[in-house]
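debug: dumping io for the single-chain case to check the tokenizer round-trip. Nothing else runs in this session.
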Amino acid sequence: MTVKNAFYAQSGGVTAVINATACGLIQEARRHPEKIGKVFAGRDGIIGALTENLIDTSLESDEDIERLRSTPGGAFGSCRYKLKSLEDHRAQYERLIEVFKAHDIGYFFYNGGNDSMDTAWKVSQIAEKMGYPVVCVGVPKTVDNDLPLTDCCPGFGSVAKYVATSIREAGYDVASMAKTSTKIFVLEVMGRHAGWITAACGLAAENAGEPPHILLFPEVPFDPERYLARVQQCVEQYGYCTVAVSEGLSDASGKLIAESGTKDAFGHSQLGGVGQMVAQLVKDRLGYKYHWALADYLQRSARHLASRTDLEQAHALGVAAVDLALQGKNAVMATINRLADAPYRWEIGDAPLKDIANVERKMPAEFITTDGFHITDACRTYLQPLIEGEDPPPYRNGLPDYVRLKNLAVAKKLGDFVV
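debug: decoded output
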């Protein structure tokens, strides 16, 4: 078998465990020097391939690669950059193949979400059409947990653990002050179209009356009157009310409550501030004092509170991506298959990229209570094992001790390319 180099890139919003995937992938590639030469990482994701800005990971020590397992963020840089259709932007795909040829790259590993799997699928198509053999393997990553054909997505379990912990702790705080001060606390979490992170907040409420009292999902149209009635009921019954709301909350017409009118690089509406909106609504209509918080980057970067299950799966999928490629499996994504709920057992599988690209998995109806304000026991059974286990990073001087790689560039062989 001819020894070819590999290209790995991180895409989209990073997570607390995406570097664990990079760790597993690079370590597994190093175990097969007779089949894989060097692993080049794209600086700032797929843009690194287009601009031929490649990082030579072989120059990093085994010790530093291992330390990636406990480091959040994207060690090589990520990006929000979606390659358009083959027909409209063929030059971009041809450029990728040119870079792959110039650096003898025979394996393409793309670590991301829905749009990234679409890109990996398109690259596999253009490589075939151009007659240049590249094995393309998608590696799942998204805190939104909305990729199909996999039990869960690396990054989600740790976000779930963080938001469930945060709203439980905030609940204790609000309960302490509710008699004479704040009665309403709202936590806004990520989730554009799928309410998985909002649902995870519900894990904190193990018994009736425990926070969060209300969950607002993007899958359930927001009804202000029903919401206000439930808030008032909770305050009268428990003395206070805590709410978790998805950034993608929409009204009955499908209009996003917090849409700003601008778009991100993937063409998605820019969101933010829905937590303040639903909190202010309570103040205006019911007169209750409120506080609200935006979990934002904190929820996806909190490596100190990562789920061990999430971490182990992220690492295993990096290893599996290399193994799938060496088996000759092209245009597939490595997946997690659930074997049992309690105790949770899982195994690695794979699924065709063409069946995953641009498909969003939303919360199933049976995971949301009939009133639309909380999670069912079936949802709790699904979510619970994903947040279990602790694996804190090493600490130095009282703070997490994370690694920063050298990220030395490979010499360029081609001319410039404008992205």
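debug: round-trip ok. The mean pLDDT is 95.
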